[in-house]
Amino acid sequence: MANLGIPSNTIEILQKYNFNFQKKFGQNFLIDTHVLEKIISAAEITKDDCVVEIGPGIGTMTQYLAEAAGHVVAVEIDKNLIPILADTLSSYDNVEVINEDILKVDINRLVQEKNGGRPIKVVANLPYYITTPIIMGLFESHVPMDSITIMVQKEVADRMQEGPGTKDYGALSLAVQYYAKPEIVANVPPNCFIPRPNVGSAVIRLTRYQEPPVKAENEKLMFALIRASFNQRRKTLVNGLGNASNVNVSKDAVREALEQMGLPETIRGEALTLEQFAQLSNLLGRK
């Protein structure tokens, strides 16, 4: 089958099937063989791996994955792409395409069925509006996986790596850094896609920690505190958490916990490290 990383081959397939890009699915197909090779090597895929690809599109990266992996399960929401994928992947017998919305798929069950519950690797070129729910869904449901290697909007990739005190630091940064070690492996300009997006992209690899780097006695509570404190960035933690509907803590309890941690009661959430959020949730949880 023709390599779809070569732009003329992609255009040919799109014309053959008279394919129309769907804005609602944020479809931008990769047309750069160097970037594709970089993704495969960053994901460190071998014949021992079962890879779940989210949003294969017309199968551009799927072809590369099929060459490198033992088994590929590609989950595609757009039913118009299913016949195209059957064509572009026809020469591979180690690929399975599932026409589903990834947010509705029970990925734990999928891993059980397709890989006997052993850790998978996730690879994806994600539309930016759905990046956070997908990544958080994978982490929070504790899917067994080694790594997630994804193409996302550049600014989202940056956000995943940020530390306290920067404007991009937020709930996503903390969540990603709790579950995985983030590392940007490539910056990808708009001209590597068809159609061209308006923003730059980046490939980021999230290597799953065996054990989180901090000890939170109640993970759910910690993330509820994190979300509440970034929902109202301009407020102090005492006010932000004291008024939050999804967290049941009093302002006094927050003041007391901050005092125990040696932090001023005027501090804002964006100044706290992951470790401090874990400590805060442990103190408040014991109350």
Structure in a nutshell:
By secondary structure, the protein is an alpha/beta fold.
Please provide a written account of the structure:
By secondary structure, the protein is an alpha/beta fold. It has 2 domains: 7-208, Rossmann fold (3-Layer(aba) Sandwich); 219-286, rRNA adenine dimethylase, C-terminal domain (Helicase, Ruva Protein, domain 3, Orthogonal Bundle). Helices cover 40% and strands 17% of the residues. It has 12 helices and 9 strands. The protein starts with 6 loop residues before the first helix and ends with a helix.
Share in helix? 25-40%
Distance between the termini: 62 Å
- Tertiary shape: elongated
State which percent range the strand residues make up.
Answer: 15-25%
**How many separate structural domains?**
2
Number of helical segments?
Answer: 12
Count of DSSP strands? 9
Given as residue ranges, the uncertain stretches (5+ residues, pLDDT < 50) are: none
Written as H for each helix and E for each strand, in order along the chain, the element string is: HEHEHEHEHEHEHHEEEHHHH
The CATH class designation of the largest domain is Alpha Beta
> Averaging pLDDT over every residue, what do you get?
93
Radius of gyration: 21 Å
What's the architecture of the largest domain, going by CATH? 3-Layer(aba) Sandwich
Keywords:
single chain, 287 residues, alpha/beta, Rossmann fold, Helicase, Ruva Protein, domain 3, seven-stranded mixed beta sheet, two-stranded antiparallel ribbon, 12 helices, 9 strands, 40% helix
